[in-house]
Amino acid sequence: MLTQKTKDIVKATAPVLAQHGYAIIQHFYKRMFQAHPELKSVFNMAHQERGEQQQALARAVYAYAANIEDPASLTAVLKDIAHKHASLGVRPEQYPVVGEHLLASIKEVLGEAATDEVISAWAQAYGNLADLLAGMESALYERSAERPGGWNGWRSFIVREKNPESDVITSFVLEPANGGPVADFEPGQYTSVALHVPRLGHQQIRQYSLSDSPNGRSYRISVKREDGGKAGTPGYLSSLLHDQINVGDEVRLAPPYGNFYIDAAATTPIVLISGGVGLTPMISMLKRALQTPPRQVVFVHGARNSAVHAMRDRLKEAAKTYPDFRLFIFYNEPLPNDVEGRDYDHPGLVDLEKIKDSILLDDADYYICGPIPFMRLQHDKLLQLGISEARIHYEVFGPDLFAE
Where would I find the FAD-binding FR-type domain in this sequence (predicted)? Predict the structure, then answer.
């Protein structure tokens, strides 16, 4: 338990850390990776190079300091972080390593302003935060291992199917190498894929939504090829999966994690809003929601055109089959052979104003997934349309840049 004096020091110095936050975190990562290069296998080095991880951690540190009197207000955020840490295999013994280099970086960047009293207060605050997260992660590990077909850490899977879904998205059906069962998951959760990257000399980990219903035998992920290919840059792992991972190859997966999922027992309406590859968790949500008893579902999706619109035929078939399912498709760059009314419903970017009469449903929950600018836009529009924040749910992979 933190003393009031410790809380007061942390709150008083939080603005100083916010002012120098990026420099501190940048120094921290450089310092830590020099001392512990093995941790590069845990962190997303593409986010490191682009500075996204530094920005996200700096904001997280400031948010914790600003809410240190009421840490319960950060519970939802901490749960998301714990799920991501568990999916990466973060262990309790790694927290002291991070703490050592974070505190040293604060001292080295701020100089005389970082007095012994200030460093001591931040050490206590960090220790408290680390204990909270480690406790959450321990519970997640235990739950994963106890599930039928569950496990902890990394498990070997074999690629059984590799199916192109569009010009840029490919699905991989993965079965355990030992032939055993796999744990069920909540519709909307993700798994982490660990691959060795020869050009980096170590593994990298990426999280991909599970894009099918649980079946006890296999998992399916649907991966978008990102523009990349240079070691450590965005898209390298997706290019590796598209170009070099084939049927019969082996990959390693973490158990399913994530807080972005529908309540499978609920009967109230849901509205799924996706952009691009953001539809992958929505497919899993949709399949569960349309099972008995079916729920009222509205699916809103935005894509450039039919060439990159994955799983289009499956969605249209579902819209014909289930009377409680409505589908709205927006193409912002339709191809010459894309026909409005047949291939898509509206030209342009997703505009919820155009379909508000169809999406404003009593007691509905709204789920958003896609590029961060897309999610910001849809989130703000839902608020303008009178939807409460509590009914808006979204998923962010990698550093959380959603909140400024």
Answer: 152-263
The answer to whether residue 137 is catalytic is yes
Cα–Cα distance, 373 to 127 (Å, whole number): 34
Distance separating alpha carbons of residues 9 and 120, to the nearest angstrom? 10
Catalytic residue among 137, 165, 186, 395: 137
Residue range 58-111, pLDDT digits in tens: 777 778 888 888 877 888 888 888 999 999 999 999 999 999 999 999 999 999
Quote the tokens at residue 5.
Answer: 């004096």
The sign of the CA dihedral 269, 273, 278, 280 is: positive
What tens digit of pLDDT does each residue of 351-367 get? 999 999 999 999 999 99
Res 400 pLDDT > 60: no
Task: Please state, in angstroms and as integers, the Cα–Cα distance from residue 351 to each residue in 301, 345, 368, 375, following that order.
Answer: 10, 11, 13, 12
Q: What is the mean pLDDT of residues 104-121?
A: 93
Q: Would you say 397 is a known binding-site residue?
A: yes
Residue 276 assigned ligand-binding role: yes
**Choosing from 29, 64, 95, 367, which is the catalytic residue?**
95
399 is annotated as contributing to ligand binding: yes
The single residue listed with the structure tokens 């839902």 is 382
**Could you confirm whether 95 is annotated as catalytic?**
yes
β-partners of residue 252 are: 156, 194
214 is in an annotated binding site: no
213 in Cβ contact with 26 (< 8 Å): no
For the chain, which domains are there? Answer: 4-146 (1.10.490.10), 155-253 (2.40.30.10), 270-394 (3.40.50.80)
CB 299 within 8 A of CB 286: yes
